[in-house]
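Researcher: We're teaching a course module on how sequence relates to structure. For the next exercise, students receive a sequence and then see the predicted structure as tokens, so they can try to spot secondary structure elements on their own. Here is the exercise chain.
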Amino acid sequence: MINRPWMKLRPDFDWRVPHVFASGLAVFQAALERSPDGTAVDYFGREISYAQIDAMSGRLAQRLIARGFAQGDRLAAMMQNIPEFVIAMIAAWKAGGAFLPISPMNTARELSIILNDARPSALIIERANHSASYQKMERSVWRPTTLFLADAFSHAGAEVAVPAAPAELVPESLLELISAEHGDALVQLDGGSIDPQDDALLVYTSGTTGVPKAAVISHSATGIGASYGADIYGLANGDTVLALAPVFHMTGLMTTVMTSLFLSGKLVMAYRFNPATYIDVIARTKPAFTAGPPTAFMALMQAGGDLATLGCFKSIGLGGAPVPPTILGEIKAAFGIAAQTGYGMTETGGATILTPIELRDITPVDPQSGALAIGIPCAGVDAWILNDDGTRAGPREIGEIVLQTPTNMNRYWNRTEQTGETLRPDGLRSGDVGFYDEDGWFYLVDRKKDVIIAGGYKVWPREVEDVIYASGQVLEVAVIGIQDPYRGEMIKALVVPRSGTVDTDELLRFCRANLSAYKVPREIEVVERLEKTVSGKIRRVAV
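Model: And here is the predicted structure for the students to work with:
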């Protein structure tokens, strides 16, 4: 049994039992009852109340059902961080279906893969994506029977750069439908009548390990996951939440959108991440909380302007990608508070290992590996480490992280074999390598598949990257293994300069002073940028 002395912080709080909502729709309906006239979404100054979201989503649900949308069908949404995303998600649940967010960065080929796999009955898509991706798909690709076009510029006016609307007419305008003053706000299902184990979300993985797979998240998991943020981040009802991460990704969807609904709060959306724009949005709205990957916060700190506005946050969630310890210190200096690290997967319905607000100033760094702790298991979560021989590891023994959580996915969509490989009776196999210490803190070492075998030694890229970040010379780094006829693999570091250029000789000397010889990169390449996933996670690939 893992020791958990941190439980003493809240002796009256049962960490084993999460706050339970039967569904994500029940979370929204509770917020609606508490604050019908309160602002649900702020989009560049346009405020939409919970009552308005209820009416708009009801009209959309009514239209979907009228066009044949049946219980269990999928409503896909391909859009940026705009209010229509929240409206579409609630409408899908009201109509008895599941919500399927799709990255608006997807090409025609990538969109085709998802449509052929998930076969949604309806699709809501931004005009730019309609012309750039949807209309360029092969004729053989499966297409939904109902298509709506979303117009982000109708909300934002001139304050956000979005593509202009094409002149030709389109099948149906979502904005016209949801803005209509007539029609009943039809609700086929309510939060109390939904089966908690039915499908609520289909969220595709970022596809870094091959063809993307959709994790199917239940209504129960969605409702429970919405509750985690309130306690962990010390948030109160009515707090303002900034959607920093893309909401079509699990981090943004659960940690910002669902957390905001759980709080009956105001969700601030700003289309697409742009550091200068977000600095202005933060100054205007003064959010209490946001969450995102380290790259986003680093970009905000590099944006210039009045960074004093960053002091409005009372808590910050940091995850979605490994966090170098040095970055944590920089964030505290810029924002005035320590960020709270976390860990989760699309397959676990979001973050399930998090750092409570009471412990954010003492997040430990492992003295041996230099890894920063990712947190402690949330309520109802059993996390443990699997040895290579299939036994449970003890403290500081490195192995695969296994998670048994109330928010674990039901299955992979159309992937029976892969579901069985990932979901086991004792927990979900993460594919991530880590360990825990004597106080119950968990640490992420690296992705199991990313290990580099150099001269017979295992090298975890994350450890090398953390050392390179600590040099102070680089803004971003990716460590990869490249083939070497003698050593099998050779370690190479791709680095983006923090300012100007990188003194590679000095950087190598720093690495030699802080790493074993076999872990020191044999090659350092200075690049202008590194490839990233849609969630902002750096991809370890050559550029």
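Model: If you want an answer key for the exercise: Residues 180 and 204 are 32 Å apart (CA to CA). The two ends are 44 Å apart (CA to CA).
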